[in-house]
Amino acid sequence: MVSRGLCIRVIGVFIGLFAITSPIIAQYPTISVLDRTDPAFNQQQESIRLFYRQFSAGADLPELAVYSYRTLPEDTLFGIAARLSVPYSAIATLNQMEGSNLGEAGRPMLLPSIPGVFVPLTPGTDLGLVMHDLRREQTALIVSITVESISTVFRFYPGSDFSPEERSTFLGLLFRAPLRVMTVSSVFGPRHHPVTGVWAFHAGVDFAAARGTPVVAARSGAVIDTGDDLIMGNYVLLQHSGGFTTFYGHLDTVTVSLKDSVRSGMIIGTVGSTGITTGSHLHFEIRQDNDPRDPMKLLPQER
Questions:
Q1: Distance between CA atoms of 99 and 103, rounded to whole angstroms?
Q2: Same domain, 133 and 189
Q3: What are the mean pLDDT values of the chain's consecutive 10-residue runs (303 residues total)?
Q4: Domain residues for 120?
Q5: What is the tally of structural domains in the chain?
């Protein structure tokens, strides 16, 4: 089933969505209000109903169509999704949102005619990277969406929703604190080394804590390195999806081994002062594709 007003070409598992190169609202059929008084809204709802019937029956699914919409002051991502009868992941991923905040009223958005998640072939956000990594072995449709002359190619997974890890990433809960109490003693970025006095880049955050304080995995993953370093002392390095790693240094004890799988919140060691330190603390790093990220921007903030 193809909605009128939108040209859709299907070649195998390729779906191309083509539109004139005018402002976003003119490109796709417009839903002005999210209720039965709007013909385009009724059309979208008809497609949704057909999708769920066909999906439950194991029959061929209706093809994807896209609608345009401008947000109203009272709109929320979750409210829009509820009115459309689609998971909010479908809207969030189609619009490459990095969080649930819609911003000011009047934001142009694209709305899908069927549920599913959209993963850019070239991810540019943490969520895109995580989804690309987690779904690399899954079969998808290749979908090209054009907005204002710019085309973005997605892998589209009809009927799919966020996995728990993807949902955590979208909601800003990708990592958990490695310590129950985060008392920062040295921040991320350039600093004078407290021992050598040399001005250097600090690739992580130091959390002051008493020796023996449990250190937990900030996210589920696997142990890809552990050992004793001259500077970092006893350490653990964990690999996570999306190209992320976390590093835990100056540990007193280590309770995991190489190639172990770990769950988020699992104790992997205890705080210590091994290596070169001025006192008991945890040196904690988050890297993505080996580039250091500021952990305080990715960890949940204490309230």
A1: 10
A2: no
A3: 33 34 57 96 96 92 93 96 97 93 93 96 87 89 87 93 90 89 91 72 95 96 96 96 94 97 94 94 95 91 55
A4: 7-170
A5: 2
